[in-house]
Specification:
50% helix; elongated; 11 helices
Amino acid sequence: MDDVKMLTKKLFPYAYNILGNIDDTQDVIQDVLIKFNEKDISTISNQNAYLIKSVINQSINLKKKNNRERQQKITLPEPIVTNQGENKIELDEILNYSMLVLLDTLNTKERAVFLLKEAFDYEHDEIAEILTVSIENSRQLLTRAKKKLKLRQPYITTSSIKDRKYLQQYLETIRKGDVKTLEQMLSDEVQVLADGGSKLNVVAQLTSGVNDTIKLMTYLYEYYQKDFEIKIEEINHQSALLFYNGTTLINCQIFELNSDGKISNIFSVVDPAKLMRI
């Protein structure tokens, strides 16, 4: 068997892509490995498959529990920097941020089937064995998931130089308060989703439409962000703005651009607990 560090690196994407939270992911992996080491592993023919199955099922159970206990309307995934060669995580297998948000519209079984089939290329017989469902049920779950996601695929791509330049232009436009240019940069269906956690209030959890988005983002910049240091970073394979007050990260905004190159979603994480590792 691989050592603990290698196993953790291998198992991390399976748990994180279900849970969207690093602490929960690490807790699940640690618990699975502890129980695994207490077993007579000579009776397990495929130890890697056993561990992956255990991590997935424990992640599903924890996700269900978290969903039941969730009080706030909008909860966003914990962001991960994906362009710094982190050796502790298989970064290529971490889904992009927009897809993680979209996957929260699925129930936990649908999410697990979709991830295993579309992101990890498992066959339905393998998925059925992992989730203890029939092969036909696995197919049905995938069909339902795709319908809910409107057939959108989890393409795992890094943010492009073009995206980063567009974000730099967006930032300069915000600084100037250039409403006309901002109108051209935002898609008609643009949304801002904000997650302040359970203790921190946000100005608005959900804002939609060009005019309301411009009002919100220019207001936030003028009254909260203009004195912050702002950096452009790659978060979960998408371009993002990081707002620092001194050395403290206050806000992480991840941007999704549509096929026309316009901003369609801004995911704003201000929950301090989700910003600790960036």
